[in-house]
Description:
The chain has 279 residues and is of the alpha+beta class. The chain has helices spanning 203-217, 226-240, 248-259, 265-277, and strands at residues 46-51, 54-59, 65-68, 73-78, 90-95, 100-103, 109-111, 116-124, 129-137, 143-151, 157-164, 169-178, 182-193. The longest helix has 15 residues, at 203-217.
Amino acid sequence: MELKITHNKGVTIQDDLIGIFFEDINYGADGGLYAEMLENRSFEFLDARGDKDAYHQIFNGLYGWSAYPKEQAELQIQKINPLNNVNPHYMHVQAHVGSGFTNQAYEGIFLEEGHSYRLSFYARSEQNFKVQVAALERVTGKKHILTNVLISNNDWHKYTVSFTVNETIRYALFAILFEEQAEADFDCISLFPEDAVCGLFRKDLAEKVESEIEILKTYLPKQLSKEEVEQIIEEAFAKVKPQSAKDMGLIMKEVTPLLKGKADMKEVSNIIKEKLASI
């Protein structure tokens, strides 16, 4: 690679051109800022391949999910009487005692000692039976039982349970294991940290983003108060003397150089529209 440094300026960039570039790679969103810990929770995964000139998708409803152990459980994607018609696919499970299914998560489940987590899923079964919710260490095979849930409804029913972890677990598989031989349907299996910001975002990353926003604010033009904005608009009205809403452009032309980058121009526009409507 060759890096060339020159004193010649390139493309002129406006002083008030400010934005954020976000690329969802390396779990930047799913498995990252977005705190969902399980992959393909609603069994609608599409494997997208190619580029704009040769692009195709392959449905892979079981992406991220596996029978455990493979010889004692069977997983199928079905869409008969689904939970909803927007996401019509769900997972049908037939399992023996102690078997069930796992989710690979985002390179493994990470659970912190002393932290609490919220699991939710929809299920239906003709049988009443308990399942173990567990984390299975990939290297040692050690099973950590996290909680238990009683499946007890033959129609779609949402189950929600919270649990606290008493030891830190790394690179584990998330597992739901049947305590008796049974079959059931599952959909929308979701696991979130209890401390997720707004119930959606990882607390550590959200706090990091907030601190970065505060740093960026120091480089932005000082924002005017609502009173200061209204004062500038009043002065523009006095100067332009608009007669009707048709003079909106004249007012905006007057205030834009004074307010751009220092106020929310959408809000400025709304204030001007309200004042024009009262003429």
